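lol forgot to send this yesterday, sorry. struct tokens for the thing we talked abt
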């Protein structure tokens, strides 16, 4: 099972939703910011009740992917409502969720882009300037899904491995050669492969490329 948590959602769980008109996105454009209010005193109570439902519906899954990616636009909004810097409220959220999931017998997978300072060359990057500190702040039992759809030196994948994150995944998408390179690099660190389907027709090449290079990295 997979869902989006904190921001980057247009449907799904509306857990104390907050929003801001005329927020700036990563490209400087004016958009609406929408997020779950981590600062609400009952946020974790409700969030974990929903998590319990997920575990019941999916019969105690080995993994639950909460993504928690691409909420660059929502950072100022969340900092306002939590009264904390992004790396502080985000690490707290991830650590509490990992601990709770462990009691249920599940592991948490998240995407990596909020751990990488925005506009880092060659990386999917949506985090604040001090985002790299998360590599020392977050429970090493979390599973990291490293996504990259274009060419890259893939340095952050290496950083996660060097920092002691053992359960790594790579998430390619649609272009055969970047898919091959990402899977081959992931193979160095024992990474599993997450075949995401985000839209068509781009996935027409993607699934066959992912299948090929999963077997022949």
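and heres what i got for the seq, position by position
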């Amino acid at each position: 099972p997979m869902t989006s948590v904190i921001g980057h959602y247009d449907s799904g769980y509306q857990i104390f939703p907050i929003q801001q008109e005329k927020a700036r996105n990563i490209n400087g454009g004016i958009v609406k910011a929408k997020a779950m209010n981590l600062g609400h005193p009952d946020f974790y109570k409700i969030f974990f009740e929903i998590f319990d439902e997920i575990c019941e519906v999916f019969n105690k899954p080995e993994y639950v992917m909460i993504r928690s990616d691409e909420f660059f636009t929502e950072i100022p909004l969340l900092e306002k409502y939590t009264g904390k810097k992004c790396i502080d409220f985000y690490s707290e959220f991830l650590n509490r969720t990992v601990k709770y999931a462990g009691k249920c017998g599940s592991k948490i997978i998240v995407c990596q882009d909020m751990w990488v300072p925005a506009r880092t060359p060659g990386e999917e990057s949506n985090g604040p300037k001090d985002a790299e500190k998360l590599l020392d702040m977050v429970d090493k039992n979390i599973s990291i899904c490293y996504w990259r759809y274009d060419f890259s030196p893939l340095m952050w994948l290496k950083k996660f491995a060097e920092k002691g994150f053992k359960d790594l995944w790579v998430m390619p998408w649609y272009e055969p050669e970047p898919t091959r390179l990402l899977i081959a690099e992931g193979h160095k660190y024992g990474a599993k492969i997450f075949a995401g389907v985000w839209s068509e027709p781009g996935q027409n090449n993607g699934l066959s490329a992912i299948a090929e290079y999963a077997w022949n990295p």
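The chain is about 35% helix and 15% strand. anyway ping me if u want another try
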